[in-house]
Structure formats: C-alpha cells, structure tokens
Design goal:
The complex is a heterodimer of chains A (243) and B (539). Chain A has 243 residues and is mainly beta. Chain A has no helices and 18 strands. Chain A folds into two domains: 115 residues, Immunoglobulin-like (Sandwich), CATH 2.60.40.1820; 121 residues, Sandwich (Immunoglobulin-like), CATH 2.60.40. Chain A is elongated, with a radius of gyration of 23 Å. In chain B, strands 3, 4, 5, 7, 8, 13, 14, 15, 18, 19 and 20 form an eleven-stranded antiparallel beta sheet that branches. The longest helix of chain B is centred in the middle third of the chain and has 25 residues. The chains are: A mainly beta (243), B mainly beta (539).
Chain lengths: 243, 539
C-alpha cells in the first residue's frame, strides 16, 4: 500500500494572519488481495526543530473508500490548524508524518424477527457468527421494547461482540432497522465501537416510533466489521503556498 | 320510556305568508304533552310540503318546554316562486331528557375580589389512584372557571367534554349566597365546549350545578294543512345608506317582518347559487371524492395545556398535547395537523405543517406534542382565554415493493423490470429502467453513475399525495448502501408523473455484483377534522 503525495499545501486559516491550515491529499495503490473499504489516517505536523506543533486530533479520522486489489484511490488527511506563534521558521518548514491503516469490511446479517408484543418479551437472535480470518465474533443479540408511559416506543438492541484475539478491532457497526407490517422501512439506528484485544462489549442501536406502528412490525439486525489489512506511512516536506 | 310519551299534540298558529316577490314565510306554534316535572328540551324543525313533495325544511331550533309552558315557535323562509308554495307542514322533533345533575362546590378565596382582577380554575380532584368525576349523562365537566375582571361582575363558566356530541345538551346554574344565574339549554355540537358566561356576584363559596341532557330519536308529526295563507307585498331591500337606515328605524312595526324576509331571501339566494356552481362547475366526478372524505370519524382533543411565564420579556411559553382517535374503519398511516391560536378575535400564533407517519387502526389514538411561545405584545392578561383551532388531515397509505435490478457490467446498457402490483392508486404495472453511465466528470474514470427512471399514472378519482419513489443500493455482500429517491407532492386524479433519480460517484468496483431495490409509497386523504377549544392561560 504505497502512499504518494498528491497535495501538501498551506494557507492562512480562519483566524486570519494568526494561524495556518495545511491541506494533504494522498493517493494509494491497493497491492493487497483484499477489497479495501475504509482508511483511517493520522498525522503529526513537526517543526524544523523536530517537535510536534500540531496534527490530527481525536482518536482517528476515517474515510470510506472502495478499492479492489490493484485499484488506485485517493483520500484526504485532516489536520487541525496550527498557530503561527508555534512556528519557529516559515510555513513551508513544516513536516507532516502520516500513517494510514486500510481496512476490509465484513458484513453480517443477523436476521429479521417480529417486534416483541410488549415489554415482557424480547426478540432473541441466538445465532453466533465468527468473522472469517479474524478473532472477532458476534455472540447473539436481543431486541426489546423500552417501557414507556406514553404512546411513543423505543426499541433497543444489545448486540454482543467479542474480540478474542490480540489485534485491536478498530471499528464495528451494529445497525437496527425497523419495518412496518407492510415492509416499509420506518427507521434505522446504528452505533459504532472499537474493542480492545481480548475484550467484549455490547453495541446498542435503537429506533423510535409511535406504538401503533409496531403492530405487525419487524426488525432486522446486522453488523459490519472492519478488519485492518495493512498500515503504511509517509513523510511529506516542503508544503507549497496554496494557489 | 319518558321521551316516548312526549308527543306533539297541537300546532297552533300555523300560518303562511307568501310575498309578492316569491318568498314564503311560515310559522308554527307547536305544543307538546306528557312533559315531566323536570321539563325537557326539544329540538325541532318544520317540514313544508306541496302535496306530497317536501319543498323546504327549516334549520333545527331548540327550546326548553315545561308542563306550564309546553309550546315552541318554529319558522321557515324560502323562495317558493309561484309553483312551490307549500300547502301543508309537519314538525320533526326530538326530545332531550335531563340526566341526574352534578353539583360542584367551588371554594372562592378572598383574592377573587382583588382590584386587579383574578382567575380561578377548579378541576376534579386527583387522588392517588383515581380522579374525581364530574359527570352528568354523557357530559364530563373538565373545569369550572371563575373570573373577576376588574370593575366588572364576577363571571363563571365551565369547560366540558361530551362523549355524544350532537346527541347531548346541557344547562348550567351557579349560586353563591343567594345570588344565582343560569344558562338556557344548549346543544353540544362538538366534543369540547365552553359554556356561556354566568354573571354572579360572589360573596361566599360558589355552587355550580350542571344538568346534562340526552337526546331521543327523531319523530315526525302527522302532516297538517296550512289553514291561514296570506299574500303580502314585498318591501324594498334595506340599503346601507344612513338616511334610509333612519327611515327603517322609524317605520311601523309591521314592516319588520317583511324586512327580515328580504334579508333571509338574499342569504338563501346566495346559498342557492353556490349549489348551482358546485354541481355545474365540476370537471371531474367530485361526488366520488367527497364521499371518500370522512369528516366526523376522528375524535380530536387537547389533552395537555400548560403554560409558563411570563418570562423576563413577558413572553408566555405554552406546552400542549393533541390526541386524535381514529373512530373510522380506515387504517391511518399519516396525520398532518396544524394548530392556530386566536386571542381577542385574531390569530396570534400557530404550529403548522406538522406531518407524522403512524399506524392507527380503528380505536387507536395518536398523540402529538408541541410548544408555542406567545409574544407579550399579543397577550392581553385581562383576557387570558385562547381559542385553539386544530386542523387535521388523515391519510391511508399504499406501499409497494417494485422488485430489484442487478446493475449491468456494461456502460450504456439500459435494463428494466416490470412489476405487476395490486393497487387502488396506480396503474397495475410499473416499469423501472436502470442504466450505468460514465461519471459526469469525464476525467474521473474510476467512478460511474447509475440512473433510474420510472413513471406512474393515477388511475383513481382522487388526489394522491407525498408520492416517493425510493431506490436502495445493495452491494454484493448484501449490505445496504446509499439510498436515493424522487418525490411528487401531489398527483391529480387521472394524471401521471415521471420519476428519475441517480446514484453518483460510485466506485466502479463497488458496482460489481450490486443491485438496486425499488419501493413506491403514496398517501390518499381519507378524512379531515376541524376542532376548536378554549383554553385559559395561567398568568
């Protein structure tokens, strides 16, 4: 997964003459056997003295891409603006140290069941699904109606996910879709999580509707796992002034 | 049954005046017998015949009758021309029998008489498990309001709910230390109603008595001939000129009846013209449409009304909840509603264009909550009543699954699918086409676009609303991806619509083995409801 610079430039940021924003676009060639559907990137912006003056904040930045083996794609690396006061040299003296991890996607359809009749019953998804070539698995799920005093109802799912390996599960999405009795999609809820090695967690997507619409309704549950395929890095120097 | 023994025994003073300009003015004094000691209320109308054909029926009027005062005057006016002069009449009536009254004790604290005016709201006491009931017949009293406007007499009125609107009535009596006032009988013509105001000087605690009335079925008297038929001269119409108006005031009492006749004639004439326009001006079969729309089979009420404030700016926040019950046999899938707030005779705010999908079978209820902020400038604290007008529209839905198309590998290849559908709205077969094209940006060779097109025709005789043509992308693993749709706000009877939409910037490899699923959703209006209620702000 060779990373190639497509753009590395700078301009003044929203604080006018007080800050700088750096723009970074990379191209990548999928030299693996997997289909890549997600990239997570991170970046540190280094001064000419060799210490960090900025970069990507938060735990990660991710972007949907789609690359079959051999395909070339492009993605953006997002960074926070840098205060001019932090720079000892010129704007073009900054170096960007970038790493990117590429993920394949595994989609698991856990099935479709009737909505429980009341708060005393639940829809049980008793199937356990192991994700191929990984230590990730779904350990079943439950969908239930949250007790309510009014005419509105929330349906909650608890989807048990286990990571029994030593590799981080960096992204898993659970999705709950509610259909009315004619099959029209009423609402969809999803949540995402990351799971540390040898840990488990539940994901709890929920949907919300009027009680009457639950009559004869059904729910569909699915989960999407993103498995890291490869990580690559690149260091960019000498950004240009944006034209 | 008491009401069955109440009979129309005599029709006194039945007379008919026919004016020279073709208007017939009839009056009948109806007398009833077997009236119980409690008295009853009567709602009645006169039916006018020429030979055996009904030529006019008056609007119903109501009146209380007792054994001491058993008669009731009825009248009707209509344009008879020369060929429709009635020769006989009958009286159509029903009896409202009083139910056991409910007596409500309403404590009145001294603050009621403060100079600046005051306001008291009495509601049934709420216990831990139950709520005190203020019921009389089918009527439930929701609150008793005592109002003291500075400088005026004290006023008392009630807010009530009737389970049987149009088949129930009520009267209210209020008493405070020898001072008393009462209303006359009033027909309950809608589920929620505010009584007329009683004026009473409050000295000690107030006692309010409400008597509910329940209606019998309608009865019709025997047909009787008019024995007193007179021809009269028509008078000139009243003109809105100051000088002429003075002449009318100064004129002899005899002229009053013909003048009234003339006014009513004008009104009748307008109604008549409307009727002609409606039938002759229609360009499609409106009767089918109008029969389809229900107007009375949805119960609508405000179940919660609370206000806070006034805040620092003097604005008043109002929380309210509307409850709608589907009493029709239709399955309701969409409710659109608007709420308009009137104060002092003008509209001051509203919560409009609300639309919520639902599923209401017969007997199901729908709740909607909202919040309004009333500007200080519009709220007169001395008259804290708000008239709330609710307008609701009820829709049934058709939802059709139209199948799927696998995305072809080749560019420019148009593929299509035809679905036979069972539908009351559309043509029975709906065809959809799909084509895969290069990206609009010719330099972007990695991505492509997928175009989807279809058409429908409304084969019904009614308007179809909110039509949505939805396409869902499913990748080769079965994972749902993007959705795209086209929308038509309203489709007239016997007309058609074309839908087109697309997925753009789709990676070529993502289209491999993928498919698109198609759905069509539409709504048809099946009922409407107009609702009014008066609520009082706590200021």
């Amino acid at each position: 997964m060779k990373l190639v610079k497509k753009r590395f430039d700078w301009d003044h940021g929203w604080r006018g003459q007080n800050d700088l924003e750096y723009g970074i676009d990379l191209t990548v060639t999928n030299d693996t056997d997997a289909t890549i559907e997600l990239v997570k990137s991170s970046c540190l912006l280094m001064s000419d003295s060799g210490f960090s003056i900025g970069g990507s904040s938060g735990s990660y930045h991710d972007e949907d891409i789609y690359m079959d083996p051999g395909d070339v794609s492009e993605f953006q690396v997002v960074t926070d603006n840098v205060m001019l006061s932090a720079l000892s040299g010129e704007a073009d003296s900054v170096t960007a140290e970038i790493s990117a991890t590429f993920f394949s996607k595994e989609f698991v359809n856990l099935g479709e069941m009737s909505v429980p009749n009341d708060v005393a019953t639940s829809a049980l998804f008793e199937n356990r699904v192991d994700i191929a070539n990984s230590d990730f698995s779904v350990q079943g799920a439950v969908v239930y109606i949250e007790p309510s005093d009014d005419a509105d109802r929330s349906l909650l799912a608890t989807v048990g996910v286990r990571n029994s390996g030593t590799e981080m599960l960096q992204k898993v999405i659970a999705q709950l879709t509610l259909f009315d009795r004619d099959g029209q999609q009423i609402q969809q809820g999803e949540v995402e999580e990351f799971i540390a090695p040898e840990r488990s967690t539940i994901l709890s997507p929920s949907v919300y509707t009027k009680a009457g619409r639950l009559r004869g309704a059904s729910v569909k549950l699915n989960a999407t796992f993103f498995k890291a395929v490869k990580t690559s890095g690149i260091t960019l120097k000498n950004p240009e002034k944006r034209k | 049954m008491a009401e069955q023994s109440i009979e129309l025994v005599e029709n006194h003073g039945a007379s008919l005046e026919v004016s020279s300009d073709g208007y017939a003015y009839s009056t009948v004094e109806a007398e009833f017998s077997n009236i119980p000691e409690t008295g009853v209320a009567i709602e009645a109308q006169i039916i006018l015949f020429k030979e055996d054909t009904i030529v006019s029926a008056s609007d119903p009027a109501d009146c209380e009758v007792t054994s001491e005062s058993p008669t009731f005057w009825l009248s009707d006016t209509f344009f008879s021309g020369t060929g429709q002069v009635p020769d006989s009449y009958c009286v159509c009536f029903r009896v409202f029998k009083p139910e056991d009254p409910v007596s409500i004790s309403a404590p009145v604290p001294p603050e009621i008489s403060r100079q600046s005016g005051s306001f008291l709201i009495h509601e049934p006491k709420k216990g831990f498990l139950s709520k005190e009931k203020w019921n009389t017949g089918s009527i439930t009293i929701e609150s008793v309001i005592v109002k003291n406007a500075a400088g005026d007499d004290d006023e008392v009125f009630i807010n009530l709910f009737s389970k049987k609107p149009l088949d129930s009535g009520f009267r209210v009596q209020a008493e405070s230390s020898g001072n008393a006032d009462e209303t006359i009988f009033r027909l309950v013509d809608k589920p929620h109603l505010t009584s007329d105001y009683l004026r009473i000087h409050l000295q000690e605690d107030l006692n309010v008595t409400v008597t509910g009335y329940t209606a019998s079925g309608w009865s019709m008297s025997d047909k009787k001939p008019f024995l007193d038929i007179q021809n009269i001269e028509a008078v000139e119409p009243e003109v809105d000129d100051e000088g002429v108006a003075e002449e009318v005031v100064d004129s002899e009492p005899e002229s009053a009846a013909p003048t009234k006749t003339k006014k009513q004639k004008t009104k009748k004439s307008e109604i008549s013209n409307e009727g002609v326009n409606t039938s002759s001006g229609s360009w499609f079969e409106t009767k089918v449409t109008s029969e389809s729309y229900l107007t009375e089979q949805f119960r609508m009420a405000i179940t919660q009304f609370e206000n806070d404030g006034p805040d620092e700016d003097g604005d008043v926040g109002v929380d309210f909840t509307i409850e709608i019950e589907n009493e029709s046999s239709k399955e309701i899938s969409l409710v659109k509603w608007d709420l308009i707030v009137d104060h002092n005779g003008t509209s001051i705010d509203g919560n409009v264009n609300n639309s919520e999908e639902c599923l209401l079978d017969k007997g199901d209820t729908f709740e909607a909550s909202s919040y309004l902020r009333l500007s200080k400038a519009y709220v007169d604290p001395s008259k804290p009543q708000l008239e709330l007008k609710g307008y609701a529209k009820f829709y049934e839905r058709e939802f059709l699954k139209l199948g799927e198309i696998e995305i072809p590998e080749a560019l420019h290849e148009v593929v299509s699918t035809s679905s036979k559908v069972k539908t009351d709205f559309f043509n029975d077969e709906i065809t959809i086409s799909l084509v895969r094209l290069p990206d609009s940006d010719e330099s972007n060779v990695k991505e492509q676009e997928v175009y989807l097109k279809s058409s429908i025709s409304n084969k019904s005789d009614f308007y179809i609303e909110d039509i949505e043509f939805k396409c869902v992308f499913i990748d080769r693993t079965g994972s749902e991806g993007d959705e795209t749709f086209d929308y038509n706000h309203a489709l007239a009877p016997n007309s058609g619509a074309f839908f087109q939409t697309s997925f753009y910037s789709m990676p070529k490899s993502k289209l491999k083995g993928a498919k698109v699923e198609f759905f069509l959703k539409a709504y048809r209006l099946v009922g409407t409801k107009i609702f009014t209620d008066v609520k009082t702000l706590s200021l």
